[in-house]
Specification:
The chain is α/β, with parallel strands linked by helices and 320 residues long. It has 9 helices and 13 strands.
């Protein structure tokens, strides 16, 4: 099973009402929930770890996840309210206003040894629940239990308006990246964390410290990946009609983990054996899935039927 741990929330997306006025529509989201949904829709056994409220919005979240066959056995339900996010698009990038005080996601607590990590192929962590010390500490405690048995995937998915102390936040993100086997982030997040630093140099330093794979996604410019054996691999982004980019990175992340599992390279033992051809295929598949998401409103990860047989043929199973 592939697990994704972190935020589950409701986005309020901008729309026009029938009489032309500005309005919003509630849509289930949250980066880590989107990733769990994306992996499950592509056909991998996938589960979500985190807090989900029992309120109206929490029931929407649970129903949405269950409809995509996401396993919720490791979810903590509580009467804390659901995180809400109001979305606007500015210069092509989604901007968020979060309402996240005392929420089910934010108050989630990891229980030591509550997950049998010897049965889990990969654990993904990231996003808004890491923006405060408590959430980051819970994630690190879970990673400590998982390390050695499970591949750790990390995407900071930075939300600057939730960051109170940037220097401390960057230290936390560096600590999480150092604990991960797979690190992925957007070029926007890289700039927020590291400014004008050279991304290749940063990626190589993470690999030298123990990571197997580092990926920087660059929107319409494609993706660059660094791997200890495969070296630097670049792929272009497919051409698509962009409705919005909400959830595109999540779909990329979900598809990347799905692809690595499909070709037999997701475990901590096989991920370092990845070669350049395999990595290129996985990145191309992930880019295709992200493009599908960009072509429709909101965070709506694709199913296998959405990406088509040609894309799935990019992922022949490796013969060991």
């Amino acid at each position: 099973m592939l697990l994704s741990c972190g935020d589950a929330l409701v986005d309020f997306l901008p729309v026009k009402s029938a009489d032309g006025r500005d309005a919003t529509v509630p849509v289930v989201g949250g980066s880590c929930l989107n990733i769990a949904v994306g992996m499950a829709r592509l056909g991998a056994p996938a589960g979500f770890v985190g807090g989900i409220s029992t309120d109206l919005f929490g029931r929407m979240i649970a129903d949405h996840a269950s409809a995509s066959q996401v396993d919720l056995r490791y979810v903590t339900r509580s009467d804390c309210q659901t995180t809400l996010a109001f979305v606007r698009s500015i210069a092509g990038e989604p901007q968020y206003a979060f309402y996240d005080e005392a929420t089910a996601s934010r108050n989630w607590t990891y229980r030591h040894c509550s997950i049998p990590f010897n049965e889990i192929e990969a654990l993904h962590v990231g996003s808004t629940t890491l923006a405060n010390d408590r959430g980051a500490n819970q994630a690190l405690a879970m990673i400590e239990d998982a390390r050695g048995a499970t591949t750790i995937s990390f995407d900071p998915n930075c939300r600057p308006n939730l960051v109170r102390h940037k220097a401390r936040y960057i230290d936390r993100m560096n600590e999480l990246a150092a604990a991960a086997d797979i690190v992925r982030m957007s070029d926007v997040d890289f700039e927020f964390l590291y400014g004008a630093s050279d991304c290749g140099e940063r990626a190589r330093s993470l690999i030298a410290a123990g990571a197997s794979l580092v990926v920087i996604t660059r929107g319409i410019k494609g993706a660059h990946a660094w791997h200890g054996r495969a070296g630097l691999v670049k792929v272009e982004a497919p051409t698509t009609r962009v409705v919005d980019t909400i959830g595109a990175g999540d779909s990329f992340q979900a598809a990347l983990l799905f692809a690595l599992r499909a070709i037999g390279r997701i475990s901590r033992g096989t991920l370092p054996q990845l070669n350049a051809d395999e990595l290129g295929r996985a990145l191309s598949f992930a880019s295709t899935c992200a493009a599908v998401t960009c072509g429709r409103a909101g965070a709506d990860p694709p199913r296998q039927s959405d990406v088509g047989p040609a894309s799935l043929r990019l992922l022949p199973r490796v013969q060991e």
